[in-house]
From TrEMBL:
The keyword Membrane does not apply. One of its GO terms (molecular function) is DNA binding. GO terms for biological process: carbohydrate derivative metabolic process. Pfam families: HTH_6 (PF01418), SIS (PF01380). This is MurR/RpiR family transcriptional regulator. Keywords: DNA-binding, Transcription, Transcription regulation. It comes from Martelella lutilitoris. Residues 13-89 form the HTH rpiR-type domain. It comes from the Bacteria.
Amino acid sequence: MPNQESDAPDTIDAFFARLAERSPGFPKRLKQCADFVAANPDRVAVSTVAELSAEAGVQPSAFMRFCQELGFSGFSQMQRLFRSDYSRKWPDYATRIGSLRDHGSDSPAALLAEFVEVGRLSLENLLTSVETEALNEAVAMLAKAETIHLVGFRRAFPVTSYLAYAFEKMDIPAMLHTGIAGLGLEYAIRPGDAVLAVTFAPYTERTLEIAEAGRARGAGLVAITDYVTSPLVQLGATTLNVAEPDVGAFRALSGSLSLAISLAVSVGAARENGKNRK
């Protein structure tokens, strides 16, 4: 079991890269820890191990083992990393939203204020959660694809349906996989195509199935998802991460839709530039 300080990640980016690499092989309790930290990284810097363990639904000993599996000597060392590095990159939206709720959200105006605030914070978050290199790679892959297959169900469907609209307006060949009447369109995926899969926790099994089928058929794979523990990461997707804060049990799509329009316009421009160079 790795537990030497020299083996510990020294940046948040390195931490999440290691988490994505190792979490698929974790037993159930450690996977719970991984999923909780991926979903609530802002909490690590300000919470005790007992508090984090309770919220993750595991014993403190399991959380300590989770820290050690990632190369830390214990929780304190991991927390120091988050306190020194993470606060510079990500907004602590939980505290701000908590203060809004303390002032009451019974009125429509107060609820609107909450959604405006989480939307703003989601956009701030997007600037640090999406890696420039991954974004450039995704645009290049989609720009050269023969057909772009858009896959996203449930909460992700507005994102893929918007992308289908945008690509159609730019004369970019794209197919929206809707799942209507249980009809699958995986047969249409060909080598040289690309699958753009969108799913957020809890991840939609049908989206994962189509993404995996596309990989097996030789298509490229781009993912818009939330955490480094997303199953799409394990499929080798070029991943664009966007995590949306929630208001109660409801999540807006401010960050996801902003990423989608940026991606669509960038792909359209790249394809046009490619035509002009021919």
